[in-house]
Amino acid sequence: MILEPQLIVELALLGLTTGFLAGLLGVGGGMMMVPFITIILSGRGLSPDLAVKMAIATSMATILFTSLSSVRAHHKRGAVRWDLVKGLAPGIVLGGVIASLGVFALLKGAWLALFFAAFVSFSATQMFLDKKPAPTRQVPETVGLVGAGGVIGFLSGLVGAGGGFVSVPFMAWCNVPIHNAVATSAALGFPIALANVVGYVISGQGLQNLPPHSFGYIWLPALGVIACCSVLTAPWGAKAAHKLPVKPLKRVFASILYLLAAYMLYRGLTTV
User: Fold this and answer.
1) Which domain holds residue 163?
2) How many domains does the structure of the chain reveal?
């Protein structure tokens, strides 16, 4: 599987776009990468099951780089709630390891695609409706944060996303201002990605029919191109996030998620 010029251009455009979205929406770009990497790998002869799994794992690996670039820009503006990062991170690591080392390897790619579509659609609806949390609702204490982190890490591991599709609505539900929620979600992307990538590499060892230059479930050529491009545009997205009003930011988030959920629903239904 040689990286011909057309493929390099496709991956570069994907990296530039998802990097901007990572900074803008705090979603790590995984919501967009998974469908497109699935298309690219399927078009190069991989089975639908393996293509979905490698797309999820490769997408998560790129978030290691995108999150660092994005959070740096948010931190300069003082928008990251590091107290929430500290509280959520232990649960995120535990949930991510459970998902990527166990459940991910056991589930078929088609079921992962359907799960991706269902959960992303739910998240998009919550954001699009812009439901207001109760004014008295606050961020939970330590035990509650660890539990929430576990859910975020586990779900992220199954769909290859940086957790923003869960953590942003969760923090908004707890009356954390949306710009702080987006910035904090970007910071959470790194522990989410690190825990899950380790699991994808271990669980993918010894698999047959992997494309050349694979490391477990991770396709290294795509990781290299996308990561190099995404870190360039993530700071631009972070800058834009601090200039946009709250409601349009949520609507942009939701609209993108609906489109990508529809594609993954199609993939899941046609390969079950």
Assistant:
1) 5-271
2) 1
